[in-house]
């Protein structure tokens, strides 16, 4: 096990009706900016519950934050928050709304060009941020309990992640009933997003980290067991509770302490979203199986362990068991209704060339061993046609 | 899954040499009181490393905090801390030193009789506390990453737990090499203490909490796999790392969110320590197997799950599998060198009567179903003769 630091001060309020308690968590004299997405919270009653809970506060709002939140749109919220002298941000939505709100939180007090917060080096780390709370409506990204965010720029087709300990939410409300009205595809996307958050931290090489392995496997097993039920039985509170908690635990930092991490699937997936507008989870579901096949030698020991503990694969040669484990993974994504090949989305090898080119120019080497060059990325993309 | 709140802001600094970084975590102008136990830290070099890391601070010290820290001794530290105008407490030791230091932290600014912090009702909750840091030398209690503590009173043979969110350590250093010089019995005690912290939160009744179950099982499996190695191979960094992290994760609150908890083994065990001075872990190792046998009907479903997932027990009738699971548990404790029967410690049924009497007078009903009355406690004690 490697040395590490772990710190996560987010207060979780979990359960039906917990939104009623948020007034206790926000400074009395706060000017609150509620941020949200496409407006589903106004149809399913969540917006009204939040407004009821905020009685007595001065509240303003900024809606319309899109999936893969755009820098250009978020800067409008930054201007608005400055004008209204907002002192507290309450993100009501999924990972995109929360990520966008983290950017707003960092950008409002930032005196330079806020784009530098995303692409800048050390000179532009976050030194100040508005406090944030969140009311989660879409379990997926884990953003409600971590300090990172991903923001895109339309004009340049770029997607960047950034983060700071100052961006941990002060609190996050996780009410499983708020997820009842989600469309099936969003539930499926969330399960797959969380699943691949775990594999990025787990499917690397053995590093004598027993708890981290067991806990990662526990999240994966839970998603495999309950993911299909979340689709087939959408109003089951227990199923939704476990899916919600799985997604939060998948990326709150506790699984990655002291172990190598990969994140190549995400790095490649981000480009697919930037170029083709594919849902984040879909990009991951396309890339992961091919990446595992391509990197099977480096990941062999962990793939065997994963096959055994998550899928019960115990027979056959090592090669056969690795095959089976990867196949089970891809089939699981498909069983959630998510297609896993570029052809399913009408994307051809020619259209993927600019992505390989971008990685070639950057010269990045991805993966837990820093061996995934642009050549290997090309192989991974071809393997997913 | 039940509704819950979760909040744990402790910063963990994990790994060899991490103590060198503590100056960054303590206010520059702090007056630091180092608290410690019997002085082993002066022999194994930990004291010197801490002092080196604190160069530039005004440092005073209070040693001699005993296992099962005593109110009477801790009050001396409270007086001393007040006299020296201490502003930061650094506990260097195991759970007893950390628990004692939590009491000191709460008692120094308390204006009433500090004993009321332990036995008092709501009128005496902690409203102010000195900040604490910890340097852990004995993995066991989890106190380094939670907000609770247990303190005893010599004069009345009482042992009480208390806690407050104000008592979370600001930081805790977990350096596995600091555990290399521990005596075998302390390592064994720590493993068993952590094991039973988990069973108190897990061996109850099924509550549709998949992550909590899997994570509890993951800690138990790790302790079963590595506990004996920690004894047989005491200088193995990886083994010690995993034991240390297991003990911390066993009682930082993440395993008990949204699930029923038992804690009867601890409640009974505390009395055994108060009456006979037995090590905390030994009291738990005596009580748990007998408690599981006595409460086997209420705990049946979880005992079957535990047997299967932790011990691989899959054959036989339900009754046989429950028997096997409990037997495996008791044998595990014995394999760590801990004896599990009162007779092994020369304690007779007559000597146990005052404990039954005390529970009868209190009228407490313990356990996840509040069904463990003094009669059942008597049966549990008899079952462990």
What does the radius of gyration of chain A come to?
20 Å
Please write the CATH class name of the largest domain in chain A: Mainly Alpha
The interface involving the most residues is between:
A-B, 41 and 41 residues
Taken together, the total number of domains of chain A comes to 2
Overall pLDDT level of chain A: 96
User: What distance separates the N and C termini of chain A?
Assistant: 37 Å
CATH architecture of the largest domain in chain A: Up-down Bundle
Largest sheet of chain A: 6 strands, parallel
H/E element sequence of chain A: EEHHEHEHHEEEEHHHHHHHHH
List the helices and strands and how they pair.
Two copies of one chain form a homodimer.
Chain A: E1 4-14, E2 31-35, H1 40-43, H2 46-53, E3 58-62, H3 71-83, E4 88-93, H4 95-107, H5 115-119, E5 132-136, E6 148-153, E7 158-163, E8 171-174, H6 184-202, H7 210-232, H8 237-250, H9 264-276, H10 280-294, H11 300-311, H12 318-335, H13 349-362, H14 374-383
Parallel strand pairs in A: 1-8, 2-3, 2-4, 4-5, 5-8
Antiparallel strand pairs in A: 6-7
Helix pairs in contact in A: 3-4, 6-7, 6-8, 6-10, 7-8, 7-11, 9-10, 10-12, 10-14, 11-12, 13-14
